[in-house]
Amino acid sequence: MRSWTKACLLAGTLMLALAPLGAAEKHSDAGIERETYADGVELMAKQDWKGAAKKFEKATQQKMDYAEAYDQWGLCQNNLGDFMGAVTAFKNATFTNPRLTLAWYHLGCGFENISKDAKAQDSYERALGVEPMVDPKAVTLTHFRLGLLLKRLAIKKDGLKADLAPAISHLETAVRMDGDFAEAHNELGRCYYLIGRYPEAIDQYTLAIKNYEDYAAAWSNRGVAHWADGNWDLALQDCLKAVDIDSEFAGGHYNLAEILYSHAQKLQSQDKAFVYHDEAQKAIDEYRQAAGLDPKSADFALGLGKACRGYHDYPDAIAAYKAALKLDKKSAEAKTALTEMKKEQASFIDHLPKPTPKAE
After folding, report:
1. For residue 283, what are the contacts with CB-CB under 8 A and spacing of at least 6?
2. Measured between alpha carbons, how far is 355 from 24 in angstroms, rounded to an integer?
3. Rounded alpha-carbon distances, angstroms, from residue 140 to 111, 160, 184, 188
4. Distance CA 92, CA 86 (A)
5. Where do the domains of the chain lie?
6. Spatial separation of the C-alpha atoms in residues 273 and 200, rounded to whole Å
7. Helix count (H) and strand count (E) of the chain?
8. Which of 12, 48, 253, 313 is deepest in the core (most CB within 10 A)?
């Protein structure tokens, strides 16, 4: 069972963090470039990224060392999909003002967007190294992003044996600095879950929900943690709440399916056949929902295959496993399942009564 999160403002993209005009005034003589910058801020607020980018670019031409304008120009380029251009702008911002913490943070996000993880880590560490600390919000965001990056790199390197202590340390700092940071609480909970600290994970998910009541991913993740901690009733309750909040949340349907199927297997082992079939069918329905919402997920297809096979629905199980194998050609689970089901079907056919030969 996996702990899934949904992409939010801070996940995978740069946060729209507008530099306050007051910060720009400290580096400007209140000249025309400041008016141009203000125009850019107004356009950004309207999500007119193209128009705002032109204003910030013009501001840097009017004042070559205008770090805040470079920084905001980079955010606009990021939102327009020009990730390389964004990185260049953030580099200019940090070069013209090495003490601008927010620019170092944005540069780290920019490097992550172009898969330069080592440079991203260095940028985040540079952001945390600015002294004295004049931008607590940017520092909080940096601890958050660095924690996520270190977690991802550790899992990529060592899988389930990954050392998550450095990542946890940064995420713990983020929630200490901002107790209302719902996404940081959720991600810290995910780290605790991965190392088996389920009660602590539940506490963090609860804090995330307290700060953002409709946080579907946190509800779903808390459900998974409750199940791992042995409380099926609370697990089901939370996972149902998650899909009720967001019916399009594929990961939420997947987690609900996993819990339902695990419970169905438990019922089967207790010879509660009628209840088992009902629960198993519910699980299959949820797996179908997840796979339908995200047809590119091999995990969702594998889940559907597993449940259909357990329900002895071989045609659908085979179709699901083939779909998983198409999405992930290295999937050992799908390959093994398909081979085993082929043998099971052949064995079943061999035991069928042979037809009586007709007389000539």
Report:
1. 257, 258, 260, 261, 264, 307
2. 89
3. 19, 27, 10, 14
4. 10
5. 247-351
6. 36
7. 18, 0
8. 253
Of the candidates 45, 56, 63, 110, the one whose C-alpha atom is nearest the C-alpha of residue 83 is 110
Query: Taking the mean position of all CA atoms in its chain, how far away is CA 132?
Result: 32
Distances (CA, A) of 164 to 78, 151, 190: 29, 6, 11
Distance (Å, rounded) from C-alpha 198 to C-alpha 206?
12
Q: Can you read off the two tokens belonging to residue 189?
A: 């909970």
Q: List, in order, residues 6 or more apart from 269 with CB less than 8 Å away.
A: none
Measured between alpha carbons, how far is 291 from 334 in angstroms, rounded to an integer?
15
> Per-residue pLDDT tens for 117-158?
999 999 999 999 999 999 999 999 999 999 999 999 999 999
Which CATH fold topology does 247-351 show?
1.25.40
d(CA 43, CA 37): 10
List the one residue out of 65, 75, 72, 71 whose CA is nearest residue 28: 65
* pTM, rounded to two decimals: 0.85
Look at the block and give the residue holding tokens 């327009």. Answer: 80
| 336/324 Cα distance (integer angstroms) | 12
For 285-341, the pLDDT digits (tens) are 999 999 999 999 999 999 999 999 888 888 999 999 999 999 999 999 999 999 988
